[in-house]
């Protein structure tokens, strides 16, 4: 389960990410509740999520081109420092009492612009820290640390919101970036599996699109991830609306929902870390289970039952992410990995500008239960449809894993 921790550079990377992710989750929880407090609107929360994700949708592929051209370690040093500065700036506005919702929206957009480069760089950098035999384990542990932070971050945010204000959470996040910055600087460059950087040429965006279009295993995985991300992963909207409008229990319940989702997500990530390899059957099956659980959770008659369902949603959700992430990384040629992972982040995170405002509008107009049921139903239907397409596409092929994963997936034909 923890084999990749034998690599010193990965230990430094993981420790830094754990500390930073705790701050990120604390800020995310505080940010959603701050917007809801300032506006009283679930739609405004959806707009915040959309603004943070919009840059990924618009510029994500350009971020992947940049990542393939430049040193990923130095790139991460720059992006992590900028994220820290953004959090500290908003903390100052909150403590001064001058914060307005447009400040939060602007900060969310700036964070989104930074993650256009930061996310694909972090995803692709893992494959330079460990070798391919350890990649599934490293990706799973990275997801597990993110979910472990999800346990602590919302809980800390709940305490801070109850005792002080949202500014404390933003301050915590800003200071937490010291850990990943220190970890990156302490890494031994000689032990990294550096990939030859791509030279600056024309047509590099078209090249990655042609590459993915010619690989049905990558293409349909990305389509499924995009549909589930668009309609099912709007948790800031769903959970804040259930806490505020359905159960009328406030920020304490919202923090509890996030924490329990983190419990399930951590369990799912650790289970994935024990799995020897990633296959499409797991991606499709977990996507269906994720959607079906959201539909059932939407009808939960009591808060305690809904809280239990959030843990299951977290478990299936992180299984989709970890398994799809690993399938895409291990099935992509190293020279294309930054751009393909940028495309992965575009369809997964960049879908929020479409899904989050839509989910917020449904929640405001028809209620949180209907919004969650619609998102889950679409996710489950997408899993059934794409699973059927993948199973039919793989029938004529020999040597695949049952869903079109050929053993020679690392090869590239130009």
H/E element string? Answer: HHHHHHHHHHHHHHHH
Could you list the spans in which at least 5 consecutive residues all have pLDDT below 50?
396-414
CATH class: Mainly Alpha
Q: Which percent range fits the helix content? A: over 70%
Oligomer: single chain
Number of strands: 0
Count of separate DSSP helical elements: 16
- CATH architecture classification name: Up-down Bundle
What gap, in angstroms, lies between the N and C termini?
Answer: 37 Å
CATH topology: Growth Hormone, Chain: A
- Beta content: under 5%
Any idea how many domains? 1
Relevant CATH superfamily: MFS general substrate transporter like domains
Coarse structural class:
mainly alpha
Mean pLDDT: 82
Main pleated-sheet profile? none
Radius of gyration, CA atoms, in whole angstroms: 20 Å
Shape annotation:
globular
Describe this structure in words.
There is one protein chain. The protein is mainly alpha-helical. It has one domain (3-186, 204-394): MFS general substrate transporter like domains (Growth Hormone, Chain: A, Up-down Bundle), CATH 1.20.1250.20. 78% of the residues lie in helices and 0% in strands. The protein is built from 16 helices and no strands.
């Amino acid at each position: 389960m923890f084999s990749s921790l034998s690599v010193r550079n990965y230990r430094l990377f993981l420790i830094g990410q754990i500390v930073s992710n705790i701050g990120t989750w604390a800020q995310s929880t505080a940010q959603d509740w701050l917007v809801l407090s300032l506006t009283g609107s679930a739609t405004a929360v959806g707009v915040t999520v959309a603004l943070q994700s919009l840059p990924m949708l618009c510029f994500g592929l350009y971020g992947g081109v940049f990542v393939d051209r430049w040193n990923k370690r130095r790139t991460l040093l720059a992006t992590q420092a900028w994220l820290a500065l953004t959090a500290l700036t908003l903390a100052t506005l909150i403590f001064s009492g001058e914060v307005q919702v447009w400040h939060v929206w602007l900060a969310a957009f700036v964070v989104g612009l930074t993650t256009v480069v930061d996310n694909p760089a972090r995803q692709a950098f893992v494959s330079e820290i460990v070798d391919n035999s350890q990649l599934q384990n490293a990706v799973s542990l990275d997801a597990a640390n993110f979910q472990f932070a999800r346990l602590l971050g919302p809980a800390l945010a709940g305490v801070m919101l109850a005792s002080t204000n949202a500014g404390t959470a933003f301050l915590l996040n800003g200071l937490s970036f010291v850990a990943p910055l220190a970890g990156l600087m302490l890494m031994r460059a000689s032990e990294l599996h550096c990939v030859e950087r791509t030279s600056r040429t024309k047509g590099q965006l078209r090249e990655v699109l042609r590459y993915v279009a010619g690989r049905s295993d990558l293409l349909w995985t990305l389509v499924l991830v995009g549909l589930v991300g668009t309609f099912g992963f709007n948790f800031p909207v769903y959970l804040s609306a259930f806490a505020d409008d359905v159960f009328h229990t406030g920020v304490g319940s919202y923090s509890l929902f996030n924490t329990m989702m983190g419990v399930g997500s951590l369990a799912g990530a650790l289970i994935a870390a024990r799995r020897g390899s990633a296959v499409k059957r797991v991606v499709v099956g977990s996507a269906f289970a994720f959607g079906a659980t959201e539909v059932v959770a939407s009808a939960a008659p009591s808060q305690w039952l809904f809280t239990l369902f959030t843990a299951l949603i977290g478990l299936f959700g992180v299984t989709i992410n970890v398994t799809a992430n690993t399938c895409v990384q291990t099935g992509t040629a190293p020279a294309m990995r930054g751009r393909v992972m940028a495309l992965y982040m575009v369809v997964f995170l960049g879908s929020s500008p479409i899904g989050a405002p839509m989910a917020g509008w449904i929640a405001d107009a028809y209620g949180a239960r209907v919004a969650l049921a619609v998102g889950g139903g679409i996710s489950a239907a997408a899993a059934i449809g794409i699973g059927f397409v993948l199973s039919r596409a793989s029938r004529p092929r020999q040597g695949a894993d049952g869903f079109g994963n050929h053993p020679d997936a690392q090869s590239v034909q130009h």
